Amino acid sequence: MSKRSKHQRTPTFEESAEGYLSNTQLRRNIGHATHTIRDKRAGVVAEMPDWEKLREAGAKLKQRTMRHLDKYLVQLEESVQQAGGQVHWARDADEANRIILDLVKAKQVEEVVKVKSITTDEIGLNKALAGEGIQALETDLAELIVQLAEDEPSHILVPAIHKNRAEIRELFREKLGNRELSDKPEELAEAARIYLRRKFLSAEVGISGGNFAVAETGTVSVVESEGNGRMCTTLPNTLISVLGIEKIIPTWRDFEVFMQLLPRSATAERMNPYNSFWTGVEDGDGPQEFHLVLLDNGRTKVLADEMGRQTLHCIRCSACLNVCPVYERTGGHAYHSVYPGPIGAILTPQLKGLDDPSAASLPYASSLCGACYEVCPVKINIPEVLVHLRGEIVKKKEKEGSLREKMDPEHVAMKWMGRTFRKRSRYERAQKVARSGQKLFTHDGTISKLPGELSKWTAMRDLKPIPKQTFREWWKTRS
Amino acid sequence: MSSAKQEILDRIQNALKDIPPDEKPDDITVDRSYRTTSDDDQDILVNRFAQRVGEYKATVQRVSQSDVLQTIKDSCKREKVQQLVIPPGLAKELYPNELDLLKDTHEVQLTHHQLDDADGVLTTCALAVAETGTIILDAGEGQGRRALTLLPDYHLCVVYEDQIVGIFPEAIRHFEEKMQTKAPPMTLISGPSATSDIELNRVEGVHGPRRLEVLIVEE
To answer: What chain B residue is nearest to A299 in terms of C-alpha separation?
Structure first.
């Protein structure tokens, strides 16, 4: 069921959530994972006396970058070129894939090694490469698991979080041909090490994403734990890195902010095991050919929305996923996007556009509790953007919706509510009507079953009836 | 200019119409009043560094100047290291000569397969950070190119006490000038290679060296 749906249309969040909610194994795996990282993160964040100042600085630096993105991109290009690298610009996924395909084909290889990169998942690079007979080998342990299982990642940071060790053992036994394997994580990791080491040593082309690119120096960085990032960015003679245009930071010094914020928010460590920073090409050390592909693919649309713009501040730490009460219960697949969880609920619809019914269902995948905003290391106000997007969806429905959409009971009810709340006399009249109408449905001081369309609301929740006397009425009787 | 570049830049300028045309990047002020130096004494920093590196499941030893070589020999023996990779520029006083030393030079580089077959590598570092237990390599003398500390399964790193700074911003600022002129490849190492991809169980060692040992040399 975790495989991508075979329906012509990608299901909405609501349509898929139900299935995932009833998968108890999945809920257990995800619940265990999110709670473990959540608690650990709280611990390492509490250690930092200046955490709030760092968050604020991170938010401001990203704001500065976005407001002057064109200047920084041009500066980045110059810096990378000066350091011996080549820069390519891609308006969309197809263009990025085409650029990469041409580069890889020029090297006449059948296989490339890849570092985990959500950006390359976003553009569907592996599939594009496969279409031309080139296998992209995922080298991150979790990505390898997902790739071998022909599955989809379910978490930004730990993509195979939905699989437990027994499932992984079965997969490795079958796909890596290792019948003796136990389900000890150490042995499973060892199997992956041996399998991939041969590949690393012979790889001629490496493909990576990147966490940051510094406009001032042209430095690109990969933040990781396993060492596969170091392998892919060091051993092959050609390195191709794909970065969204929002991954840029102005100066080297800005790392002092982001490299403190990211590891603690992501893996809940003081520092993750390996961080690689490279600047163009270094003579006699690492790849002698470096290509940086700068990707738009909808990001400039996000940038155009003054409220939505902050979505581009995201440094992909996934702290918001781990605290989200919705993500915790459905897991990542229900979002049908490479960007799941709260950040995905605002990023996906902006990247894909609200015409996409699946993407447009995501702003509703939230209780607006605000936990995501609280943990966000760059202070993206996710609830604010969610509400803003919901507003955009309603506006769009009003403008372009079919008669059927406009006559949708929820839409009609909301319109009626809006009208009622706008004028006091109308509001008070409605209160009186409701007060007499509710008598039929009130038992022991609660309303637990409403008729017709309204029953959807009470199916999950009880309502308090409107009181016999409102505050205003009571106030009047006082004098 | 490529048409894609022009179009993306045009899209950005269109998207940013609400920004006043005379606004400069620095008009968005960034308050950098977070900690940029540590007030702690060097003794405390050295202790903290040793403790934090240890928490990452690396082996940590504190040794005096006169004992460094002997400790290197002992550690290599304990880790059953026969073939040890030696980067260019490593001080000769640190060579455990009775081992099979694979010397990488700028002129003749060891192949990736030679590095893969080697049992370990011995290096120094450029700087270390106490708060995060991080070793920083900038491919300088005694550290070598990046592949050297990546392929062998055991990395023995010598850190001198005066190389340890308190917090991360100090390290970033230490390299600022270098990065602005001729930026070397930088590798930050905080413990051995690790993964938490299987049920969030931390496993030391996937692709990088599975064993990291740090010798902190007293002044």
So the answer is: B12
ipTM: 0.96
The superfamily in CATH containing domain B41-217 is NagB/RpiA/CoA transferase-like (3.40.50.10420)
8 Å CB contact between A153 and A338: yes
pLDDT tens column, A435-459? 888 888 898 889 988 888 888 888 8
CA A377 to chain centre: 14
- The 10 Å Cβ neighbour count of residue A470 is 14
Q: Which residue in A190, A142, A182, A147 sits closest to A163, CA to CA?
A: A142
Question: Into which CATH architecture does domain A48-297 fall?
Answer: 3-Layer(aba) Sandwich (3.40)
Q: Cβ of B190 and A300 within 8 Å?
A: no
Q: Nearest Cα to B124, choosing from B110, B115, B105, B137?
A: B137
Q: How many CB atoms lie within 10 A of CB A398?
A: 12
Pairing of strands B164-165, B127-129: parallel
Tell the burial category of B39 from Cβ atoms under 10 Å away from its Cβ (0-12, 13-18, 19+): exposed
Are A157 and A267 spatial neighbours (Cβ–Cβ below 8 Å)? yes
Residue B66, min C-alpha distance to chain A (Å): 30
Query: What residue spans define the domains of chain B?
Result: 41-217
Q: What secondary structure letter does DSSP report for B110?
A: P
pLDDT in tens, B152-194: 999 999 999 999 999 999 999 999 999 999 899 999 999 988 8
Joined together, the tokens standing for residue A314 give 């995201």
Q: Do A168 and B193 touch (CB under 8 A)?
A: no
What is the layout of strands, in order, in the sheet containing A111-114?
A: A86-90, A289-295, A238-244, A205-208, A111-114, A135-138
User: Nearest 5°: phi and psi at A290?
Assistant: -130, 125
Bridge partners, residue A282, by sequence: A285
CA A328 to chain CA mean position, Å: 14
- Residue A370 has, within 13 A of its CA and on its CB side, a CA count of 2
